[in-house]
Design a protein that fits this description.
Length: 379
């Protein structure tokens, strides 16, 4: 059963998914950017969580315990996320929270969940969400420095020694920029340009024209759509032939659609295995789960699953495994998540610990190249 209620004052939408017979139950809170510029993140996250709650309840719940999800749309706004996390904690009395979709929103609510003692499983990638470790905060996307290192390791193989950096000025871009600059120093790579753009900018030809004149060996762009798609179009318009690397923040077909297959041709990036599972060996530890998720999502929503929806899938997997092993209170769920070891997921294989609340490494990504409108694994 799906119930949609509009809250005019907060300018948000609440999506509540439950079953009439759910007793006893665990109430899950969720904050997703279902609308707004980050909807390509939040919509598949919301869809995935709704699908999984329905599936598990139809199969008797977890050890007989049903689940209820209370999902709020933040619109990608950190201020709204802060308002809504307190609604989830104080009014809805949730036992765990999944989301938010973006790094800025996640950083904005950390103090709230830490103070309340409610486990948070963020669906955003920024390193600072979980480093330094906070008792109640976890996240499912691999850390941005892992994605950056994947790119730089490939650059080294190509003997690319200099690059231009172009990052968005939001939380995701700022975190990525810090990690990239630190890794560049470690690996002896020269940054010949350090440019930024705003999340709502619609033309980046000024920055790219400057970069073109500096003749770097490569360009690294760090952001989430629509900015990277605009940059890709601008690069094509300017006739720039320099190798282009994008962040894992655009690892969905939506990026190729927005940029256009012709402009995106040849662009490289680190992507989770979901994007390319159909070319993985069937012996890959993640293959069966990736295929199952994509099949279920297509059946439910008529379109392929995305890496971003996979972040919500993994959060749900972590919390359900925690409930099975540890119990249903916030403290028990937190402890169970922290004890997750060798847990095969959509994003990789989680190995959480008291000193690592992300639990993923370089194996979470494959380097891919856009070829004829699709992803191809770079050998």
């Amino acid at each position: 059963m799906k119930k949609i209620v509009s809250y005019a004052i907060a300018m948000v939408t609440c999506f509540s998914v439950s079953t009439a017979t759910a007793a006893p139950f665990v109430r899950i809170g969720a904050l997703f950017s279902v609308t707004g510029p980050a909807s390509f993140l939040g919509e598949p996250e919301k869809n995935t969580l709704e699908m999984l709650v329905k599936e598990i309840n139809e199969n008797g719940g977890i050890n007989g315990t049903k689940l209820e999800a209370v999902i709020y749309d933040t619109g990608g706004d950190a201020t709204k996320a802060k308002q809504l996390v307190n609604k989830l904690i104080k009014n809805d009395k949730v036992s765990v929270i999944i989301g938010p979709s973006t790094t800025g929103e996640s950083m904005a609510i950390i103090d709230d969940v830490e103070r309340a003692g409610i486990p948070l499983i963020s669906c955003a990638a920024g390193l600072k969400i979980t480093e330094p470790v906070k008792k109640w905060v976890f996240k499912t996307p691999a850390n941005d420095h892992v994605a950056a290192e994947k790119i730089m390791n490939y650059m080294a193989k190509q003997k690319q020694k200099s690059f231009a950096l172009l990052t968005v000025t939001d939380g995701f871009g700022q975190s990525g920029r810090e990690q990239i600059k630190a890794l560049a120093r470690q690996k002896g790579l020269k940054i010949v340009a350090d440019e930024v753009y705003g999340p709502k900018d619609t033309d980046m030809t000024a920055q790219l024209t400057k970069i073109r004149g500096l003749k770097p060996d490569a360009i690294i762009c760090w952001g989430t759509n629509p900015g990277p798609a605009v940059i890709t179009k601008n690069i094509k318009q300017l006739g720039i032939k320099t190798p282009i690397y994008m962040s894992h923040g655009v690892a969905s077909k939506k990026y190729i659609q927005l940029a256009g297959a012709d402009a995106a041709e040849g662009v490289m990036l680190p992507a989770g295995k979901l994007a390319i599972y159909d070319v993985l060996p069937k012996t890959d530890a993640q293959y069966k789960l990736l295929k199952s998720y994509d099949s279920s999502y297509k059946k439910a929503y008529g379109t392929e699953a995305s890496t971003f929806g996979g972040y919500a899938y993994d959060a749900f997997l972590l919390l359900t495994q925690a409930i099975k092993k540890s119990g249903t209170t916030p403290e028990q769920i937190r402890n169970g998540i922290e004890q997750a070891r060798k847990l095969v997921s959509i994003s990789g294989v989680f190995n959480m610990s008291p000193t690592n609340h992300n639990g993923l490494d370089l194996s979470a990504f494959e380097m891919v190249r856009v070829t004829k409108g699709d992803w191809v694994v770079i050998k």
